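Re: that backbone. Tokens:
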């Protein structure tokens, strides 16, 4: 199988590390060779972060170059736009529509771009955009955006749902398991 590339992008503190860990665990348990990169960027709350997950028969490096990502999973809308050049021509974006103002917007030096979903679609990208924050809150915690996104991403993979659940159970503390399962299901079924 040829190598597939997934970029998980967002803002520090949103749970992208857990999402990439869960995804790596899932793919490894399904028999793929998997490479997961370290988080790149300002991983403290508020900074832009990116993690690479690559899988296939044999994966040499965890790094994804421009134009190579099959999927971009974005926790925040502007981050989807920021990393768009890395998406393959026929790639898929799965994004939360939440907007978190970056520092230039907060200081008044810039404005948050309008109509980003439409602009992403106009670029030719396939975009699956949903209000993951609303669904996470419905599940019981605003911190479950990552599992809502993983649930939505599961649509694009021919992997059994029970494999996703086993990976979720292996990576989420028991006391948060039911909440996160609910968040995953809300994202999957949105």
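Recovered sequence:
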């Amino acid at each position: 199988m040829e190598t597939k590339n997934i970029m998980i992008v967002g803002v520090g503190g949103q749970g992208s590390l857990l999402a990439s860990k869960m995804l790596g665990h899932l793919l490894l348990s399904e028999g793929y060779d998997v490479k997961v990169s370290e988080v790149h960027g300002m991983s403290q709350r508020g900074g832009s972060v990116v993690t690479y997950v690559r899988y296939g028969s044999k994966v040499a490096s965890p790094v994804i170059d421009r134009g190579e990502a099959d999927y971009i999973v974005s926790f925040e809308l502007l981050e989807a736009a920021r990393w768009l050049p890395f998406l393959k021509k026929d790639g898929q974006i799965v994004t939360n529509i939440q907007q978190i103002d970056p520092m230039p917007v907060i200081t008044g030096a810039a404005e948050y771009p309008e109509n980003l979903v439409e602009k992403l679609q106009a670029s030719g990208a396939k975009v699956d955009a949903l209000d993951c924050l609303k669904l996470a809150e419905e599940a019981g915690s605003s911190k479950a955006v990552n599992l809502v996104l993983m649930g939505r991403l599961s649509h694009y993979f021919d992997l059994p749902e029970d494999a996703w659940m086993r990976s979720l159970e292996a990576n989420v503390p028991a006391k948060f398991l039911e909440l996160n399962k609910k968040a995953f299901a809300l994202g999957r079924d949105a």
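The two ends are 30 Å apart (CA to CA). The helical segments are 16-29, 77-82, 103-106, 116-122, 132-139, 145-153, 161-171, 177-189.
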